[in-house]
């Protein structure tokens, strides 16, 4: 008899329907699995055999053929176990009267029949729901993640035996109640702008960067709080919307980095170490294509501490995603586009010894050493970093009497206002922030007065800026105007935007 | 083809191209050059040097020597270079007056610059940003009256080059052969100077820079110029060699004043203490030579810029946050105003969000 059970395979961030067809016929006992399964899928035979036996069912004797259709889609991972087991039971007539029609089965089996959680469940559920499936049997361990789907009947199961009893109607499992999304902030996290002493210039740059989604470079001597400032970035970013959270969760689910919570409810803050390879940064893998750090930072911050220490190839690979907001990874296993719309924050010392430009310490580097150090970051990459600021190495209270330091929540409020202006401006387009503006939006929303044009032209010539840098200055000026709730970009806004680029003339 | 070099000049050229002469030979040569040298003497010295150089035996073969000299000239011309010898009419008189002038200057670029009035601007390789900016401004302004003489290193030399090169009134003196790129990063810059100004060295092709050649080069810097301005110098900076050489040649020495205690400016302050001219802008140099100060074209300032600039001038150097507080505006408004002032060339960033006023 032939049994057909629906399962889903993961291709990048999309689920592809796979039909598990099982045929048990008389003959010499054999087990054949066809349909481009990878090693983990092929090994399902042993897991399924033990799980069926240990759950009190009998593994059918005879010639067994399992076909995963369509045959040309590569299947990987262990999420097919449950579907294969159910289809085997069905084919061997141990599930008579069970309604399996229209149910999608997902789950890995343990030898004792327990159903184990799988990675990439949420993207699969979203795709399957879009394909019209509304009933799912999923591992209980994935229940939290699955509950965010909504609008579907999702049955969490913990064992194969439980699944069978449920299918036969002997046991009722209540479908998951849909979870409502609540953006979360780590209150216990110590990162908050109120703990940052002084740094008025860097604070402002941080605010502008977040308000417009611009990239940020913090330059300063060691131990001046560059990392501390960067860690405050997520605390001033606007809350995630549910749509954003789902998109980010999909990526993290595929990468298997989803935590207990089941959904990414706060903006990611990724800090890859400087030994990270290009593949670790951008995504890839030998057969399966996995998202890289830039995709895991999607919707959040990619923080590169000590920028010049990173491999040049890994840094240069960031250039295209920084422009496009996505990365297309081509591998033998397929070509996958991952979203990668992240905010880049980088930090670096001004020179190898770190004391260049310091008021109280002497820099021991030769000009050639400094140049070599800075040249590790290519012009094109530096061009894409809209705000380049120096971090003070003098305690602020030595400079001016300071009052209470503003906390992240206050800054976030202003950021939210500026973002609201942007979302009205870009309504109906795919653009979300000023930084994402294209040429068309630039011409439409960033018109300058004659004086503004003159300032920009002057700066352009004096600082030998590239056309890209010019466009980026305009975008930053737009954000600064938005923070001031100003319809028009004033000369002062252009000047301030220019002041964040003066690092260009450092060379 | 070699009409531009007389026979004696060619012999001198041959001597210089043969490599390093010991100092006694050089002084002897320059003395007899100054006193008027007979061909026979020159030939004898030349032969002596060539002999020791090639271990050959000199047989009174003047034609052979001249043939060798022709090769040197041809090599120069192939590379679009020329040589000015101590016997040439346009060998700078000021340089000829020093105790050990170079016998030959190998040059690439505009020959006429050698005859102009020259002023030297130097500074150590590491110098504060404001000093570099100030040096650039001074070089630019002095460039209208003088040809600026400097080296080709980073820092102070670079500031002088940046200021003077646009007007093409620039002589760079190298511590190595014309075809040697030192520093390597300035290879393109050297070509540009050779194209628009003049590159000068006493070393023949292929000579690499040695520690002592910087020392020797500095005497040419001082010797060529009527005066020397030191932008920045540490206590033991090589820049001071140039200043001391200038003093011993009876040239004027100018120095930019620095903060007491700033290591990068200790040498400058010491020079001032010893009686060097204190120089804060190009006008100070012009005045010393009896030239009128050039009228400054003051850029138009907004009231906010005026206020901030005033506050900064009062302090000399200050943090953006301090200036903001003094002016009673938020830091970012001060940032914008400071950027405007920087673009207008009135202030310079000195690192760590500090700004310095320029004169």
CATH topology of the largest domain in chain A: Rossmann fold
Structural class of chain B: alpha/beta
Query: Any idea what the radius of gyration of chain B is?
Result: 23 Å
Domains of chain A, number: 3
Architecture blueprint of SSEs:
The complex is a heterodimer of chains A (507) and B (359).
Chain A: E1 2-11, E2 14-25, E3 30-34, H1 39-42, H2 44-54, E4 63-69, H3 81-91, E5 103-105, E6 108-109, E7 115-116, H4 121-130, E8 135-139, H5 143-146, E9 153-157, H6 160-168, H7 200-212, E10 216-219, H8 226-231, H9 233-236, H10 242-255, E11 269-270, H11 278-282, E12 283-284, E13 290-291, H12 293-296, E14 301-304, H13 312-316, H14 319-324, E15 326-331, E16 334-339, E17 343-348, H15 367-375, H16 379-383, E18 387-390, H17 408-425, H18 439-445, H19 450-462, H20 467-483, H21 491-499
Parallel strand pairs in A: 3-4, 5-8, 8-9, 10-17, 10-18, 11-14, 14-17
Antiparallel strand pairs in A: 1-2, 2-4, 6-7, 12-13, 15-16
Chain B: H1 7-17, H2 23-35, H3 39-54, H4 62-78, E1 82-85, H5 93-96, E2 104-109, E3 118-122, H6 129-142, E4 147-150, H7 156-164, E5 170-173, H8 187-196, E6 198-201, H9 211-224, E7 227-230, H10 239-248, E8 252-255, H11 266-273, E9 277-278, H12 282-288, H13 303-315, E10 317-319, H14 320-327, H15 331-343, E11 347-351, E12 354-357
Helix pairs in contact in B: 1-3, 1-4, 6-7, 6-12, 9-10, 13-14, 13-15, 14-15
Summarize the structure.
Helices cover 36% and strands 17% of the residues of chain A. Chain A is an alpha/beta fold and 507 residues long. Chain B has 359 residues and is an alpha/beta fold.
What does this structure look like?
The complex is a heterodimer of chains A (507) and B (359). By secondary structure, chain A is of the alpha/beta class. Chain A folds into three domains: 2-168, Ribosomal Protein S5, domain 2, CATH 3.30.230.10; 193-397, P-loop containing nucleotide triphosphate hydrolases (Rossmann fold, 3-Layer(aba) Sandwich), CATH 3.40.50; 437-507, no CATH class. Chain A contains 21 helices and 18 strands. Chain A has a five-stranded parallel sheet with strand order 11-14-17-10-18. In chain A, helix 2 crosses helix 3 (81-91) and helix 20 (467-483) packs across helix 21 (491-499). The model of chain A has no long low-confidence stretch (mean pLDDT 88). Chain B is α/β, with parallel strands linked by helices and 359 residues long. Chain B has three domains: 7-78, no CATH class; 112-288, Rossmann fold, CATH 3.40.50.450; 303-357, Arc Repressor Mutant, subunit A (Orthogonal Bundle), CATH 1.10.10. Chain B has helices at 7-17, 23-35, 39-54, 62-78, 93-96, 129-142, 156-164, 187-196, 211-224, 239-248, 266-273, 282-288, 303-315, 320-327, 331-343; strands at residues 82-85, 104-109, 118-122, 147-150, 170-173, 198-201, 227-230, 252-255, 277-278, 317-319, 347-351, 354-357. In chain B, the strands form two sheets. A nine-stranded mixed sheet of chain B has the order 1-2-6-5-4-3-7-8-9, with helices on both faces. In chain B, strands 10-12-11 form a three-stranded antiparallel sheet, with helices on both faces. The longest helix of chain B has 17 residues, at 62-78. Chain B is elongated. The model of chain B has no long low-confidence stretch (mean pLDDT 87). Chain A binds chain B through residues 198, 200-201, 204, 220-221, 350, 356-359, 362-363, 366-368, 371, 389-390, 392-394, 396, 399-400, 455, 458-459, 462, 480, 492-493, 495-496, 498-499, 502, and chain B through 125-126, 129, 154-155, 183, 185, 263, 319-322, 324-325, 331-333, 335-340, 342-343, 349-354.
